[in-house]
Design goal:
Length: 394
């Protein structure tokens, strides 16, 4: 489950997305250079091999470790896309291009928002969308919606099988989540029960309201860190924290965790990414498509002591036992660093190296204050004990 936001104004286009997926499904940023391809070559997507194009553009992706496709991304032309799982009345195919595949393919092949929409629609009509998209449950599948933005405009693209509809955003705020929203198309194709369980309407209302005065990246970072009306999550037994943008798992029936956050200022081609989970505890770092970063060890579903994603994860899972108390050990310092970077963005490599240093320092602060007390309800404690088992020293 995810949320994507775009703000279009005379000053430019702002974009933001939380990628909400399974708890141990690590996600990482990947820089892909532009390339020329031989005639007749193929590209291997998550489940399908499809014909390659003669030239692909440079991209920066936020990619779940086991997929070919990406949850969020941008390219050398400033096109930035986020996708959402949506539930519809149309049949779900056992195989096809996933929404994440479609996002990556559009970024590789398009030089404007309109071109990207055409790429996605053409691929769906030619190859179909489908295949398992869940990590814990590989049979979990869905259809997809997208916000496709460039430096001047944004387009909402919603799909139901091979059916689709678009809505252009020329000014103001537009948000999408895990339900169809375009008038007429949503009325015809929305699966109302599954959309309700996803709490998509609650979140789209919340993100639209909280982003209403957004004028820069910091404002959208605050939206992605939001737990709604509360400072910290309130867990529901059925769907955990699906009613808030910054998700922390915990549901008995449906559940997701925010595994990556991304904010873009397309006027400056600067993108702010966490490359970790739990945006409320993480640090947004500035990156650019044309300035790749060595992030070190690529994370997988196996916890390690080297990758930034898992080192932050170890910290976050301890803090979320008692966030009101333990977050105070480091979030003020985090905020100071982030404000300094927003005023004068450093290079991405410096920011990643600094976060790598800080996360170890912050883990030390938290370890010294941790009493082992867990204030979450029993079902949330059970959810996390099952996913921590054998993975984390907590």
């Amino acid at each position: 489950m995810c949320d994507t936001i775009v703000v279009v104004s005379p000053d430019g286009v702002l974009f933001a997305k939380n990628s909400d997926r399974d708890a141990n499904e690590a996600q990482f940023p990947q820089w892909c250079p532009s390339r020329d391809h031989e005639d007749g070559s193929m590209v291997h997507c998550t489940y399908l091999d499809i014909p390659q194009v003669p030239h692909t553009y440079a991209t920066l992706l936020s990619r779940p470790f086991w997929m070919w496709g990406a949850e969020i991304g941008t390219n050398e032309h400033g096109i930035t896309i986020g996708n959402e799982a949506v539930f519809t009345d149309q049949p779900y195919a056992e195989t096809g291009l996933t929404g994440m595949d479609l996002l990556r393919l559009a970024l590789q092949r398009a030089s404007s928002a309109d071109d990207a929409v055409d790429v996605i629609v053409g691929l769906i009509e030619r190859h179909g969308q489908g295949g398992g998209c869940g990590y814990e449950d590989r049979s979990f599948t869905y259809h997809n919606s997208f916000i496709v933005a460039d430096r001047t405009t944004a387009i909402v693209l919603e799909t139901a099988g091979k059916e689709w509809a678009t809505e252009r955003v020329t000014s103001g705020i537009r948000t999408i989540s895990n339900g169809l929203t375009i008038d007429g198309f949503a009325d015809k194709h929305r699966d109302r029960l599954r959309s309700r369980v996803s709490a998509c309407d609650v979140r789209t209302s919340l993100t639209a309201s909280e982003a209403s005065a957004a004028s820069g990246p910091a404002d959208l970072m605050a939206v992605l860190r939001s737990h709604g009306l509360n400072a910290w999550p309130r867990y529901r037994s059925i769907n955990g924290t699906l009613s808030m943008p910054c998700m922390h798992g915990g549901g008995l029936v449906a559940s997701s965790s925010s595994t990556a956050g991304w904010v873009s200022d397309l006027a400056s081609d600067t993108h702010w990414i966490t490359a970790t989970s739990a945006q409320c505890l993480s640090l947004f770092k500035p990156v650019r498509v044309d300035d790749p970063v060595d992030i070190g060890k690529i994370p997988t579903d196996i916890a390690d002591h080297e990758s930034l994603w898992w080192r932050h994860e170890r910290l976050a899972r301890i803090v979320m036992r008692d966030p009101q108390r333990l977050s105070k050990m480091f979030t003020a310092e985090r905020d100071t660093v982030e404000r300094r970077w927003l005023e004068s963005p450093p290079r991405g490599q410096y920011a990643f190296d600094e976060h790598s240093r800080l996360v170890d320092t912050w883990a030390g602060y938290v370890a010294s204050a941790d009493t082992g007390k867990d204030v979450r309800p029993w079902f949330a404690r059970r959810y996390w004990s099952q996913r921590d088992a054998g993975l984390l020293e907590v």
